[in-house]
Amino acid sequence: MSQSLQGQTAIVTGGMRGIGLAIAQRLNAAGAQVVIWDLAVDGWDSAANGFEPVLRQAVDVASLASVQGAFAQVLERLGQVEILVNNAGINGPVLPCWEYSPEAWDKVIAVDLNSVFYCCRTAIPHMRERGYGRIVNVASMAGKDGVQFISGYSAAKAGVIAFTKAAAKELAQDGVLLNCIAPAMVETPLMAEMTAEHIAASKAKIPMGRFLKAEEIANMVAWIAGPECSFTTGFVFDLSGGRATY
Ligand SMILES: NC(=O)c1ccc[n+]([C@@H]2O[C@H](COP(=O)([O-])OP(=O)(O)OC[C@H]3O[C@@H](n4cnc5c(N)ncnc54)[C@H](O)[C@@H]3O)[C@@H](O)[C@H]2O)c1
């Protein structure tokens, strides 16, 4: 039997669609009450998505004030947060770094890296006080390998990995575990931002010869986010179909 998250509150950023939605569905199925943070939270389809989040909040995770305001509301409404999944992210341009605009670079770093710091910085004091927390940061294989033409994204995700390792050590005696996941490419709306060549090159790198499914990520996250994950912190869980070599 998979572990129960009954009675726990889980915040999932970028949970309106794609990987975040799959994670939210899986955590809900394990018994957690799920809070969705996303830029826009209208148009949630309970029938199609299979459940009703306890709360949906319009949050820009690249803004510390927005994150802090939303977290305060969660505590006011629900009293506690056990799980934080930092999933919201953007791909940014697919360009050689010398053509990558500084504005696009700043945005990718803000949404993909600063957001993780902001959400962790906001949630950690509450989790430390309660002596329990599970934080799962969604990095990427790009953060381990460095993928050509998405240098900003690769750098941001490498930053997420290093931040997770550093913060996990700081929290190792506090009952608050931080881990991250490094998925290979999944078929989601994010692909609309990529070129056909980039997609084909990504698939060719995966020994299993197929793309990852969002449900496979969700299953892994549901374990990392629960009490059964008790002696692993600061770790990068790969979902690479055999691609990862370190
Ligand atoms: N799709 C892949 O192949 C793949 C592979 C590895 C890692 N990832 C990572 O997984 C995560 C989810 O990706 P996805 O493919 O589901 O993307 P997606 O574009 O389908 O969904 C991302 C969600 O994040 C939200 N979001 C974007 N910016 C935000 C902000 N500033 N504040 C709040 N919400 C914001 C979007 O509105 C959207 O709902 C990202 O961090 C991405 O980098 C994706």
Brief summary of the model shown:
The protein is built from 8 helices and 7 strands. By secondary structure, the chain is an alpha/beta fold.
What do you see in this structure?
The protein is an alpha/beta fold and 246 residues long. The chain has one domain: Rossmann fold (3-Layer(aba) Sandwich), CATH 3.40.50. The chain has eight helices and seven strands; from the N terminus they run E-H-E-H-E-H-E-H-E-H-H-E-H-H-E. The radius of gyration is 17 Å and the shape is globular. It binds nicotinamide-adenine-dinucleotide. Nicotinamide-adenine-dinucleotide binds at residues 13-14, 16-20, 37-39, 59-62, 87-90, 111, 138, 140, 183, 185-186, 188-190.
The average pLDDT is 95
Named CATH topology:
Rossmann fold
* Shape summary: globular
CATH architecture: 3-Layer(aba) Sandwich
Classify the beta-strand content into a percent band: 15-25%
Task: Give the number of DSSP strands.
Answer: 7
| Overall helicity | 40-55%
Quickly name the level 1 CATH class: Alpha Beta
- Chemical compounds bound to the protein: nicotinamide-adenine-dinucleotide
Order of helix and strand elements from N to C terminus:
EHEHEHEHEHHEHHE
Number of helical regions: 8
State the major sheet: 7 strands, parallel
Provide the gyration radius in Å. 17 Å
Task: Kindly name the structural category.
Answer: alpha/beta
CATH superfamily grouping: NAD(P)-binding Rossmann-like Domain
Distance between the amino and carboxyl termini? 31 Å
The low-pLDDT segments are none
Please give the order of strands in the largest beta sheet.
3-2-1-4-5-6-7
How many distinct folded domains? 1
